[in-house]
Amino acid sequence: MLKPQVHHHHSNPTQSLLTRRPAVFATTGDGGDSGGSFLSLNKLSMKRCRCFHAAARPPPHASMEAMTGFDQASSSTTTKVKAVIKVQVTMGGVISSLDFTKGLDDIADLLGKSLLLELVAAEVDHKTGLTKDTIKHYAHRSGLDLKDVTYVAEFEVPKDFGEIGAILIENEHHKEMYLETIDLEGFPNGTITLNPNSWVHSKFDNREKRIFFTNKSYLPSQTPSGLKVFRAKDLASLRGDGVLDGPRKKYDRIYDYDVYNDLGDPDRKPEWGRPVLGTKDFPYPRRCKTSRPRTRSDPLSESRASGVYVPRDEAFSELKNFTFSAKTVYSVMHAVVPSLQTCMVDKELGFPHFTAIDCLFNEGVHLPQLQHKGFLGNALPRLLKFVGSTQNNMLRFEIPERIHRDKFFWMKDEEFCRQALAGLNPCAIQLVKEWPLKSKLDPEVYGPPESAITKEIVEQVIGGFIPFEQALEKKKLFIIDYHDILLPYVNKVREIEDMKTTLYGSRLLMFLTPSGTLRPVAIELVRPPGNGKPQWKQAFTPSWDSTAAWLWKLAKVHFLSHDTGLHQLMKGYEGQFSGFWRFSLEPPSLTLLGQIFRLRTHCCTEPYIIACNRQLSAMHPIYRLLHPHFRYTMEINALARESLINCGGIIESCFSPGKYSIELSSVAYGQLWRFDHEPLPVDLVIRGMAEEDPNSPHGLKLAIEDYPYANDGLVLWDAIKGWVTSYVDHYYPKPEHVASDEELQAWWTEIRTRGHEDKKDEPWWPVLETHKTLSYDYGGYIPGRSTIARVKMPSEDPTEEQWETFRHRPEEQLLATFPSQLQASQVMSVLDVLSNHSPDEEYIGEKMEPAFELNPKIKAAYEVFAGRLKELEGIIDARNADINLKNRHGVGIPPYQLLKPYSKPGVTGMGVPNSISI
Question: Residue spans with biased composition (Basic residues) (predicted)?
Answer without folding.
Answer: 1-11
